[in-house]
Amino acid sequence: MSQDPSASSGSVPNYRPVGGHAVLVEFGTTIDKRIHDQVVNLDAALKAAPFQGFVEAIPAYASILVCFDSLVADHRTAEAAIAERLAAEVPETIGAMREVEVCYDPDLAPDLAAVAEASGLSPEDVISAHLSGDYSVFMYGFAPGYAYLAGVPKAIQQPRKPAPIRGIAAGSVLIAGPQCLVSTLTMPTGWWIIGRSPTKILDAASNDRPFLFDVGDAVRFRRISRAEFDARRLA
Known about the structure:
By secondary structure, the chain is of the alpha+beta class. The chain folds into two domains: 14-87, Gyrase A, domain 2; 97-234, Cyclophilin, CATH 2.40.100. It is 24% helix and 28% strand. It contains five helices and 13 strands. It has helices at residues 33-48, 75-87, 112-119, 123-132, 226-234; strands spanning 14-18, 22-26, 54-59, 63-68, 97-102, 135-140, 147-150, 165-168, 172-176, 179-182, 187-189, 192-196, 218-223. It has a seven-stranded mixed beta sheet with strand order 5-13-6-7-10-9-12. It has a four-stranded antiparallel beta sheet with strand order 1-2-4-3, with helices on one face. A two-stranded antiparallel sheet has the order 8-11. Strand 6 and strand 7 form a beta hairpin. Helix 3 (112-119) crosses helix 4 (123-132). The protein is elongated, with a radius of gyration of 19 Å. Residues 13-213 form the Carboxyltransferase domain. This is Inhibitor of KinA. It holds the Pfam family CT_C_D.
């Protein structure tokens, strides 16, 4: 997906039928908060006033998949219902502020020095830049609890690595381009590992709230010492 923030804000959505049970509503093709705000607002409007046959909506960076019961609705009626909600006055959705602790000690941040060198900064400058980012949750995907955040400052943005590395620990704080993510499982990644967090993002035992974040939430990172990290991990 393009990362050009100057691209169209996607004021006129494009509708794409998906199978016989869903419509993909596309507002643009970029990682852009203006576009994502439209995704979040449509998601909120559908939750507040679901149309007959509505099943669920799945938001992404620049689009939202609207699923319906094909015995009750079809693509034409779903698109009409979506257009009605887009035309209505919808209050701006404001997400909660979530805090994520992060320790940047070298053994927990194996790529911090490489990001610093590639960015022409010191490791401390990279840390300061990361902490200053304006982050918000744009989507979930790939693995349970993987919340994709936008807002990494341009000064430290790096393309993905040429190849992924296996066995990266859960809680790793990862960046790639304008995106940031806190991993929830031990998995491979081609993103840059610049820290590790003890904050519980995924609670698999919870039926009510398995994920810490909701799409649209704001996120701030708070630096902690190694002693604090170790204590949180043992708690």
